[in-house]
Amino acid sequence: MSDYDLKFEGLMPVVVQDSETKEVLTLAYMDGEAYRKSMETGLMHYYSRSKQRVRMKGEASGNIQEIKDVKIDCDNDSLLFMVKQKGAACHLGTKSCFREIATPAVAGNINYSLEVLLELESLIAKTKNTPRKNSYTTELFESGEENIKKKVGEEAVESILAQGKDRIVYETADLLYHLLVFLSYENIKLSDIMDELSKRRKN
């Protein structure tokens, strides 16, 4: 991402997330100088509103944040940095600046997050890289591209022909699994699909 892509009108909010655990570490702010220094050094720099200056994260504590990836939101007015955190991210000595204050009710006990899909995607990728004995996923990868595509097609047909909610849910779960195997085979991530859907939403 070049500086040309960014329009700093004052300060830009920055969400910082652990690249390994995916835990949100902090919300901070950057100006143009902080962004440039971050990208030039590979270490997070922020604009301190209290000190009125740009500072490197961990310049005093040693708890630096090594940049692994950076994304910008659809309105070009906030950033997401994925970092490798050394030590505590919070000045209070905790890993994250965020702490739980309440437990919300879960509508119908249904988890609407992508967590399950992301965990499955990760497991499939791990199996792809490290084949396991007696693993159906390993068998699929070893069977080759054409067979994987065939299985996706078969599961798609079974899903649309299924009768009743329970059967549709069951067959759709099979379809999603086989689709994730196909995407992994083609080295495509769910995030790539989400990015494409996000572009379409803007249009």
Write the layout of secondary structure elements.
Blueprint: E1 12-18, E2 24-30, H1 32-41, E3 45-48, E4 53-56, E5 65-72, E6 79-85, H2 115-129, H3 136-143, H4 145-161, H5 165-185, H6 190-202
Parallel strand pairs: 1-6
Antiparallel strand pairs: 1-2, 3-4, 5-6
Helix pairs in contact: 2-5, 4-5
Structure characterization notes:
It is an enzyme of class 3 (hydrolase). Helix 2 packs across helix 5 and helix 4 runs antiparallel to helix 5. The chain has two domains: 83 residues, Phosphoribosyl-AMP cyclohydrolase (Ubiquitin-like (UB roll)); 85 residues, Helix Hairpins (Orthogonal Bundle). A four-stranded mixed beta sheet has the order 2-1-6-5, covered by helices on one side. The mean pLDDT is 89. The chain is α+β, with helices and mostly antiparallel strands and 203 residues long. The longest helix has 21 residues. It is elongated, with a radius of gyration of 22 Å.
Sheet with the most strands?
4 strands, mixed
Instruction: Work out the radius of gyration.
Output: 22 Å
Q: Indicate the CATH topology of the largest domain.
A: Helix Hairpins
CATH class call of the largest domain: Mainly Alpha
**Percentage of residues in DSSP E strands:** 15-25%
CATH superfamily of the largest domain: MazG-like
Strand adjacency order, main sheet? 2-1-6-5
Helical percent range? 40-55%
Number of strands: 6
For the terminal residues, how far apart are their CA atoms? Answer: 22 Å
The global form is elongated
Instruction: Name the poorly predicted regions.
Output: none
In round numbers, the mean pLDDT is 89
